[in-house]
DNA sequence: TACATTTTATGACTTAAATCATAAAACGAG
DNA sequence: CTCGTTTTATGATTTAAGTCATAAAATGTA
């Protein structure tokens, strides 16, 4: 996360996106660095028959879509506003200048990318070698650690829909629903009027 | 990649590893930055019933295992020498000093992490939403672009075993063998005495 | 407040990939 | 050169998760 003041000093502009509006699309060449002021953004892919895979969900103060910006490669996924969102966008030349003139920012970017790689390493191993219950639970536990889900007296409230969990773990909704029910039976989590707690 | 001279100037030491010898193991805390001088290293996970998932394979001049080093988190996977390998290891305090005194290196690290995130984004979407043939072909095409496989008059020689392809794509050997046969029938690749060309 | 949409839920069935069994070819260490 | 191991290969069978159908509850919005 780079401070709004610094970004604006280098010419970043605020842009608003409505629910379901794309920020950029798969195959496009990157032009800007993006950082969320408010709202929620998901990056995802769609396969040939419309099935979605969510690469990640990003919230306030987080940036997204930098890897292709650094590599001059086309975006491997779409970025879409999950709800109404406001984003700071800084064009590439200015962003490069900002990095050159503020070396300390590089370390932050490194840590940020490292964190995302860490998530992807964990989840890719899960997705390819573990059963649905294990996958769902791992995603939930990761979410608790890094998405700071709210905690009340029932435990952490997992504010993902079953569909989102499915799209993040490569499972179908029905499978997620059944996995969550089983996890509840096993006492790994609680379902209180349809909301999941852990 | 950081030049050997610079790494050695900061005190990096050469270490040799035999085939199948671990460099570090899942759950350990990182202590060094590692860069390959010669050989081949794989990072992988094993699930409860011994099934392997290969996170990545690294060759000459590549570094591996940095994300947890930057984050002070435990390694999410094991690093094992696929063949006899020599590696430069620089301890964390010296590595931090190297980074501070050589800001240009940060940009290289960023690009490197970005490239790996790019690979993981592509493969995770593949693994969770596409059929085996698609997954295998995508991995092969990625390998051609970034692992510089040798090219001869039959095309690019894919020097992965069927088992490795399976462990990289979350498929079983038999499934990979069958997928490759089908891809050959469809003319997407060639099998010349058991070796795969594209 | 009424109605459309989304989310959660459950049962029946289908299917793609895993599993199991077996073996030949290739490779590698001694 | 030989023997053990790894890699590739193929057929038969099983099974876990996907698919399909249907619906109630919850949510959002006109």
TrEMBL record, chains A, B:
Highest taxon listed in the record's lineage: Bacteria
| InterPro entries according to UniProt | cNMP-bd_dom (IPR000595), cNMP-bd_dom_sf (IPR018490), Env_Response_Regulators (IPR050397), HTH_CRP (IPR012318), RmlC-like_jellyroll (IPR014710), WH_DNA-bd_sf (IPR036390)
Query: Which organism is the protein's source?
Result: Flavobacterium cutihirudinis
Give the protein's recorded name: CRP-like cAMP-binding protein
Recorded hits in Pfam families, A to Z, give: cNMP_binding (PF00027)
- Give start and end of each HTH crp-type domain: 130-198
Alphabetic keyword roster: DNA-binding, Transcription, Transcription regulation
Q: Name one GO molecular function term.
A: DNA-binding transcription factor activity
